[in-house]
Design a protein that fits this description.
By secondary structure, this protein is an alpha/beta fold. Helices cover 40% and strands 18% of the residues. It folds into two domains: 7-295, UDP-N-acetylmuramoyl-L-alanine:D-glutamate ligase, CATH 3.40.1190.10; 303-438, Protein-Tyrosine Phosphatase, Chain A.
């Protein structure tokens, strides 16, 4: 086959792999990396798993390391605006010409593997390979690598990290990872490697027990929030949060965050603990800790994207995320009425998501994200109406399947003293954010 000629062709090919879906396992990825010359072997990693908070934790790690003078590559998912958002070096997206060049390297290898008994590589596997090839070429000091799904069988799990992080564990992707917290914990704890320190903010006893089993088996050292490190909230105001960090390895006082939500104290503390371990092992100096934390931003997470009307974007898409969003809406933001626009994927825990948020809502608008596996708006609408009715809630529920029409309806109805929120999936956030900022659709893919 001829080489791809431009960036769009390359990305369209990767997106075209999507029908092969989620097919967890490491054999295909191992073969792909072997045929690429094992680009993953020359890099130093921080590996980040968890149900929620992975992206924010990666953002904190990346910015602190960058402000401390290190070059940092980051791999996260999904993208917020464009495909290139997922693969970054020192805060800058992978260049389009690099995507094109690496795709032309990957295509014949993917074709070869797909003809074997291993089956066709998934889009996420191909994108992970692209990131690792790119990183091996630019040779950053550190790579912050976010797990895609689960951990044990995720395509990122063929690396040997300096430190592993499991942010938290909750109910999400249950059809794939298991129908109990213990089963989900087993999958996420699969990133634990022999002798590699593990940092976690998990709090459920049954989850801690699973993680402890894994770290004992792997002769690892486990650092748990509230046992080995903790934080103290000094103040939590809009765009101005201050806290103290305490651990066995070091304390830091009056650290500032511009990123909103009290859950970010936990995410930042997990990141700091990981960096303290690297500092103890003489891997890093943390002279940029304060500046890095204060400069950290994370698009689509409690992001005020418009002031008139006030529109807040948040990628909450599961029960834990919904509770976190509800907590922030209660403690940080002021409004006379709350108007919520929601679109979700069909694999999520829709009822539990709504139970945290609907008691706060005055107007609920149900739409559909422009993405495969979306929850039909009509079905989500009926479910929301049922929850409102059964719990005698005040929310008025509207059905607007087209997300652009829904957004216009939300914008027109939200008065100056009210707050509009868009949530339910990052794929909806991606489109709404691009439309508000640039009046264009986003690339989501994968």
């Amino acid at each position: 086959m001829d080489d791809f000629k431009d960036f769009s062709d390359a990305v369209n090919w990767i997106e075209g792999i999507a029908p092969f879906g989620i097919n967890l396992g490491l054999d295909r990825m191992r073969k792909l990396l072997e045929m690429l010359g094992n680009p993953e072997l020359c890099l130093q990693y921080i590996h980040v798993a968890g149900t929620n908070g992975k992206g924010s934790t990666c953002a904190f790690l990346t910015e602190v390391l960058f402000q401390s003078g290190y070059s940092v590559a980051t791999f996260t998912s999904p993208c917020i605006e464009r495909f290139t958002n997922r693969i970054r070096y020192d805060g800058i997206d992978i260049p389009e010409q690099e995507v094109l060049a690496i795709t032309n390297i990957l295509k014949p290898i993917v074709d070869t593997v797909s003809q074997s008994n291993l089956g066709h590589p998934t889009a996420f596997e191909v994108t992970t390979c692209m990131a690792l090839v790119y990183f091996s070429q630019i040779k950053p000091d550190f790579v912050v690598l976010e797990v895609g799904l689960g951990g044990r069988l995720d395509s990122t799990n063929l690396i040997s990290p300096l430190v592993s992080i499991i942010t938290n564990i909750g109910h999400d992707h249950m059809a794939i990872l298991g129908d109990s917290l213990e089963k989900i914990a087993h999958e996420k704890a699969g990133i634990i490697k022999h002798g590699v320190p593990v940092i976690s903010a998990v709090e459920q006893e049954e989850v801690i027990e699973v993680i402890q089993q894994h770290f004992v088996k792997n002769s690892s050292q486990l650092f748990l929030l509230k046992r080995d490190f903790d934080f103290e909230i000094i103040s939590s105001k809009l765009n101005d949060q201050v806290f103290n960090f305490k651990s066995k390895l070091g304390n830091h006082e009056h650290l500032s965050l511009k990123i909103n939500g009290q859950h970010q104290f936990k995410n930042a503390s997990v990141a700091i603990m990981a960096l303290e371990i690297l500092r103890k092992d003489n891997k890093v100096q943390l002279n940029g800790l304060r500046k890095g934390l204060e400069h950290t931003e994370w698009a689509g997470r409690l992001e005020m994207i418009s002031d008139e009307p006030r529109i807040l974007l948040d990628g909450a898409h599961n029960p834990v995320g919904a509770k976190t969003l509800a907590d922030a809406l209660t403690k940080i933001y002021t409004y006379k009425k709350l108007n919520l626009l929601v679109g979700m994927l069909n694999t999520k825990e829709h009822s539990e998501y709504f139970k945290s948020l609907l008691p706060l809502v005055d107007t609920l608008i149900i739409t559909e994200p422009a993405f495969r596996n979306q929850m039909p708006a009509a079905e989500l609408y009926l479910l929301a109406q049922q929850i409102v009715r059964e719990n005698d809630l005040k929310a008025r529920v509207h059905l607007k399947p087209d997300w652009k029409e829904a957004l216009q309806f939300l914008s027109e109805m939200t008065k100056k003293d009210e707050l509009a929120v868009v949530s339910g999936t990052l794929y909806l956030i991606s489109d709404v954010r691009s439309w508000i900022l640039y009046k264009s659709d986003s690339y989501k893919g994968l």
